[in-house]
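Hi V.,

You were right to ask for the full record rather than a summary. Here it is.
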Amino acid sequence: MLLAPAAAAEEAFPSAFKTKMIPANGAQIHVRVGGKGPAVILIHGFGDTGDMWARLGADLARDHTVVVPDLRGMGLSDKPDKGYDKWGQAADMRAVLQSLGIEKAVVIGHDIGTMVAYAYAARYRDMTEKLVVMDAPVPGVPPWDEVVRSPLLWHFDLGGPDMERLVKGRERIYLDRFWNDFAGTPSKITEATRRHYAEIYARPGAMRAAFAQFRAIRTDADDNKKAIATKLTIPVLAVGGEKSFGKMEAVVMRNAATDVTEVVIPDAGHWLMEEQPEATVKAVRQFLDGKK
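Predicted structure:
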């Protein structure tokens, strides 16, 4: 199925990247692929799509095969009624990589993508080379019980038909709340970026699926509480924005992994790729190149 593109994002992937729809557990996943070399999969979060990775994808494609999916229910992927637990979406990512003939990969995630990335690394330990998690808690991983009490996270339990009705036609208003409240400098989330994503999230079924991503978090917490009984032993990079999750990203990951490198991006809130792209790309590149 082909979908018309939304309004163009400010930054585009290099023309060498190709797009395709890949079947995964009952959903068609929209995927970009570019570059050549060891595989890296980039997993976006809420308020974004795979579009957020244009600058990092271009950098990594110089010496990696870069795979950029839109999560189920988001971007140009299918929007099924179920399957939004992160353990299950890790299986989506595995199906994408298998379809491309990729056995092992570095897994990188931001926001909801961090949750999916951790689930992937925990579920497919022998197939994960390294893990990068960016500015988000991981459900069930301490200090989860304290983190989840933050009033900023009221949206975790939001959803249902009434909320869909309230947000319908007002997607931009809803999304502005996240871009403004979670940014270190809201003006760095440009008007073009906001229009681009607001249009995508206004598509039929998109907000229902977005709510489902968050409402699955209770299930995700139960899954991860079991997973952390055996810590990850692969190298993990924990990246936090100075004005957002900061050092807490590494605190969380040290409860789930034994080899954690901590990076805090100065003058950045939650939206690392929009607010401080150069510093974020540098941190990831150094980690993948084996530099501390």
